[in-house]
Each structure stands twice: as structure tokens, then as C-alpha cells.
Amino acid sequence: xxxxxxxxxxxxxxxxxxxxxxxxxxxxxxxxxxxxxxxxxxxxxxxxxxxxxxxxxxxxxxxxxxxxxxxxxxxxxxxxxxxxxxxxxxxxxxxxxxxxxxxxxxxxxxxxxxxxxxxxxxxxxxxxxxxxxxxxxxxxxxxxxxxxxxxxxxxxxxxxxxxxxxxxxxxxxxxxxxxxxxxxxxxxxxxxxxxxxxxxxxxxxxxxxxxxxxxxxxxxxxxxxxxxxxxxxxxxxxxxxxxxxxxxxxxxxxxxxxxxxxxxxxxxxxxxxxxxxxxxxxxxxxxxxxxxxxxxxxxxxxxxxxxxxxxxxxxxxxxxxxxxxxxxxxxxxxxxxxxxxxxxxxxxxxxxxxxxxxxxxxxxxxxxxxxxxxxxxxxxxxxxxxxxxxxxxxxxxxxxxxxxxxxxxxxxxxxxxxxxxxxxxxxxxxxxxxxxxxxxxxxxxxxxxxxxxxxxxxxxxxxxxxxxxxxxxxxxxxxx
Length: 480
Ligand code: PMP
Description:
The protein is α/β, with parallel strands linked by helices. The chain has 2 domains: 6-58 and 334-475, Aspartate Aminotransferase, domain 1, CATH 3.90.1150; 63-332, Type I PLP-dependent aspartate aminotransferase-like (Major domain) (Aspartate Aminotransferase, domain 2), CATH 3.40.640.10. Helix content is 36%, strand content 16%. 4'-deoxy-4'-aminopyridoxal-5'-phosphate binds at residues 110-112, 115, 138-141, 218, 222, 251, 253-254, 280. This is Ethanolamine-phosphate phospho-lyase.
């Protein structure tokens, strides 16, 4: 079975891997065989610039992380029911990066497990189960989280899985194309308008005789289309939720560990202290480790329910050695500072592109979490979804891995490994400039079938079939 050809890999995958298990670029997938830093390599050793991998946070296969994991594997790996230094050392290091109130850690193996446990903690602490969530949210793949992830719930067409009554959606504070827009309301009113919706929802829940267990949201919403909340939004929401006896859960699975640039945790940028924080993806640089961090009081409420919490792999010595090594690299290589510097550079360069290309309606971001909202018309802000699809397919041809997201799939989403450089940004912007020019030239046919899958992008040549386009234009050799 060694050394399968790409086609053999695809055939075996078709035969043995569930159809719903998604692939990037599903119509023309890439077989990645190795990676280093912010670069990935396919089976023919073609190099791709990785702009989407927020999992391999400190750079693919970082030697310090690889060494920490392999060293510990040679000594001991076992379940977390034995005393071991790594788990307590990692808990201490993590809590040192958080506000002092957040001092108790539960280790898990995935972001979904972490969020599921967070819901359990909230439930035991408040003795309630009604949750408030943002529209467009994604918090994980287990049933409890699909229940509150409209991002996925909305895709389910068979009517089997529906949103339970205990889940309450509220408008996502997207000031560009949400319920309250910055071209319709004074900017300084937006946080209050969106937060007042939460207050109104709480009143409705109370009027039905129910009580709120909590509010869960990402500190910046990623799947919703790289949404940065208006300043003060979370402070106001937290007050309403606390006044109603609920707890606040901040999901930092995508946006934590310094990605925001000016802080280790994105919620800090909004000046709030949540009751529960969940973290995952970047935590193990690709190795499955995640965590929930909470207060002594909430942890005590959970303990008082009498049930033991046991997670076989959560907090095992190898995962924790890796988690410690990731924190080392973030500190030693000043990756948080790099995210701020390079992230600000991205914003400058993207705004320069915006001056040249009407298709860019909005540039938004913090640190290395940036979105380009593509529009057909800057005034109406009509989403340019097919154009976004084209850009992603073209970037792939230029060996740049990028993704698009948001309810209309028109937001180009950047969340690269944190070692991304200004040279990488220059290279990306050069290619984006070229591709936007292609679109402007009208020489390319856009695919009107804006597939709902977040990862299916047809090969570009297919997008152009039937209309006699000279595809060398698409390779950048001919530009209009
Ligand atoms: N929360 C957020 C915000 C996520 O983006 C994800 C994964 N995309 C999860 C939770 C779930 O994490 P996992 O896939 O590790 O279970």
C-alpha cells in the first residue's frame, strides 16, 4: 500500500471514507505529502503558500513541537488518570495567559469536545439549558453543537435534525451586511443596537417562562465571514446575559493563541472576561488537543453534580508536551507580535487593492484574521459569490491555498500559520491583483452554481468550458 498514486488515493477514499467527510477543492483535490512553515508540498513537490491553515499555528512541522511530541512518546503516553507533570504544567502555563478568574482547566481532544463540555458546565452552574447563539455560528460537529450551529444546520435538507426550542439565534453583529449596517446607522450606535437584540431575546425567553443558561459565540466570527464585532458589543451582551443569570462562553478555537495580534485571546480585544473559554485547533499545531478553562465557581458547580468527568485521551502526557512546546514557540518566536505586524501590513495592502478594484466592498481584520468581502456593487453590497469562487480556484492554480466563507460564500478568508511574512503578503497581493483584473476584463465565465459546500471548488478550466476562452489568460501569461 506504500506510495499510492494520487488516483489510487482518490479511489480508495471514494470506497472507504464517508461521503460527507469533506475535502478542500473536492473536484480537483490536492494530495499534500509534506509541509514546512507556511508552505505545503504535493506529491510532485509543487509548493503551495498556505493562507488557510490556522491549525498549524506556529508553522507546519515546527521542529520544537515535533521533538517535544516524539521525545515524550518514547517515555510515556497513557490516560490522564495518573499524576503527571505535563498536564499540570500546561494548565499553569495556559492560565497564566488568561485573566486570573479563569484558573481551572479541563483538557479534551477537539474543539467540539471542548464546546460540548462548556455547555455542560453552563448547564450545571445555572441549572438551565436555554442558550443564545449568533446566526452563522459554527461551534462543532457533535449533536449538542450542530443544534446551535446555523452554519451547518441550514445546510441540512432532510428535515431530520432541527434546531431545538432551547436554542435561540440572535443577529450576528456584522456591521457590513448584517441587520444593522454602518451605512444605515451611526457607527457608535451599532454595538448597542446589536446588543439590544440580545436583551430583547432574553425578554422573549423570560415571557415564555424559560431562563437563559448562557451565551456562546466566537470572539470574532470566522465561519460567518470574518466578522469583527463593533467595539463594546461583547461588554454590553455580557451585562445582559449576567443580569439574566446566564454565563458567557467564548469560543477561541479558531481565533485564540495570539492570532488577533494585540492579545493572546481575541475576547481581550473587546475588554471582557468570559465565564468559560474554549480553545483547540492551534493548541497542538495539528496534534489533537483542546481545552475548556473556567472559574473556580463554575468548576465547583460541575463537581457538585456528583458525576466524575473522565476523558481517556484529554490531557495525556504527549498532547500536553506538544501543547507546552506550542506555547514556547509562540513566545520565543514572538508570533503574536508577528501577527500584529504582518496583519497590519495585510490590511494596508488589501486597502490598496480596494482602491484599484471595485469588487472589494470591505476589508476587515485583526492580526492574521482577515476578510475581503467581495461585492457586485459597493452601494447595495450585493455579494459577489461566483467571483469569490473564481478567485479561490485561480489562487489554487497559482499555488496559493485560500478559502471563502460567510452565508453568501463571498468573503475571502485569510488565517495563515502565524509565521506568515510580509513577502508572502506581497506575493498574495500580486496574484489577487492579477485575478481581479481578469474578472474586470470580462473574459472569464463565472460559475453561477454557487455550491453550498465550504470546500468544493471546481477546477478552473471547467469553469471556462464551452465559451472558448483562451485559458492561457488564466495562467497569468496574458493579462488584459
Ligand atoms: N469552534 C469553532 C469556532 C470551529 O471553527 C471549530 C472547527 N472548525 C470547532 C469549534 C470544532 O472544533 P473541532 O473540529 O476540533 O471539533
